[in-house]
């Protein structure tokens, strides 16, 4: 059953995570940009990789996928509208992947364009694998999509249950919290979370996964409707943003230069 599955973040490069879901025998990997740490983890535990889930085409998310698939026979799932090195099961969004790699789990595929045009996320067993769309206390940059797209994508993820585990692909939390605290200096939830994250990183432990509920409390991109954020944006830019989308656009621009 799905509750027997375990979730493990494997560090890769300087700040990436490859997320592993496994039952002690079989596993799937999300966004394996580097094959070597995944290969090592599998070998140490005698676990077989059966499926690979890709969220978007950037190399730090795809670089190890083909190599691992060739070595293990794993099936690669990924966004249909992105230039992937290989994709066995192209996805657009709204599909349900049942038992990928014979693991007892089903994922709903969510289209989340913005960071890239065809970015997708996977939601199942209370876990959200969101790539570079949603980070703890932040969100992805606009490389290919529009602010309208990314804002709508984040609103889609924000509507998931509060206890959903947010499995982002990068350890950006402390950097994002520095910006969040600048935007909302009187937000005690941000201050408390930053202290907890600092202790985690000091012990070389991940700050992830977060939860949707926590992000509603600390992530400025989930809080654009707040009066305090509107006032801070007016102070910073000297203009009044009246709609949530306008506020989001300004907030993303501010974060880009922070």
UniProtKB/TrEMBL annotation:
GO biological process, one term: methylglyoxal catabolic process to D-lactate via S-lactoyl-glutathione
UniProt-listed Gene3D superfamilies: Ribonuclease Z/Hydroxyacylglutathione hydrolase-like
Keyword Zinc on entry: yes
CDD domains, sorted: hydroxyacylglutathione_hydrolase_MBL-fold
Cofactor: Zn(2+)
Keywords: Hydrolase, Metal-binding, Zinc
Alphabetized GO MF terms: beta-lactamase activity; hydroxyacylglutathione hydrolase activity; zinc ion binding
Binding site for Zn(2+) 1: 56, 58, 115, 132
Keyword hit for Cell membrane: no
Record field: transmembrane: none
Chemical reaction(s) catalysed: an S-(2-hydroxyacyl)glutathione + H2O = a 2-hydroxy carboxylate + glutathione + H(+)
Enzyme Commission code: 3.1.2.6
Pathway(s) of this molecule: Secondary metabolite metabolism; methylglyoxal degradation; (R)-lactate from methylglyoxal: step 2/2
Record-linked InterPro entries: Beta-lactamase_class-B_CS, Clx_II_MBL, Glyoxalase_II_hydrolase, HAGH_C, Hydroxyacylglutathione_Hdrlase, Metallo-B-lactamas, RibonucZ/Hydroxyglut_hydro
Record: residues binding Zn(2+) 2: 60-61, 132, 170
Residue ranges that the Swiss-Prot or TrEMBL entry lists as coiled coil: none
Cofactor info, note text: Binds 2 Zn(2+) ions per subunit.
Top EC class, one word: hydrolase
Domain Metallo-beta-lactamase: 15-170
Family stated for the protein in its record: Belongs to the metallo-beta-lactamase superfamily. Glyoxalase II family.
Function recorded in the entry: Thiolesterase that catalyzes the hydrolysis of S-D-lactoyl-glutathione to form glutathione and D-lactic acid.
Subunit structure: Monomer.
Name of the protein this chain belongs to: Hydroxyacylglutathione hydrolase
Organism expressing this protein natively: Hydrogenophilus thermoluteolus
């Amino acid at each position: 059953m799905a509750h027997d599955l375990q979730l493990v973040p494997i560090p890769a490069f300087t700040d990436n995570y490859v997320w592993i879901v496994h039952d002690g025998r079989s596993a799937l990997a999300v966004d394996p940009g580097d094959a070597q740490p995944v290969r090592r983890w599998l070998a140490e535990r005698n676990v077989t990789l059966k499926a690979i889930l890709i969220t978007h085409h950037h190399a730090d998310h795809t670089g190890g996928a083909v190599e691992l698939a060739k070595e293990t026979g794993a099936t690669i799932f990924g966004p249909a509208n992105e230039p992937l090195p290989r994709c066995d099961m192209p996805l657009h969004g709204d599909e349900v992947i049942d038992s990928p790699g014979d693991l007892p789990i089903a994922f709903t595929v969510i289209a989340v364009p913005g960071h890239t045009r065809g970015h997708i996320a996977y939601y199942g067993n209370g876990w959200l694998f969101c790539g570079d769309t949603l980070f703890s206390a932040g969100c992805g940059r606009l490389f290919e999509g529009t602010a309208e797209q990314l804002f709508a994508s984040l609103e889609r993820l924000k509507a998931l249950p509060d206890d959903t585990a947010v499995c982002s692909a990068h350890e950006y939390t402390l950097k994002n919290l520095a910006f969040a605290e600048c935007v909302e200096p009187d937000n005690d939830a941000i201050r408390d979370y930053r202290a907890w994250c600092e202790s985690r990183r000091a012990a070389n432990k991940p700050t992830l996964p977060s939860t949707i509920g926590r992000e509603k409390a600390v992530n400025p991109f989930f809080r654009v409707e707040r009066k305090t954020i509107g006032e801070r944006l007016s102070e910073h830019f000297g203009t009044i943003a009246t709609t949530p989308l306008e506020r989001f656009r300004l907030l993303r621009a501010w974060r880009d230069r922070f």
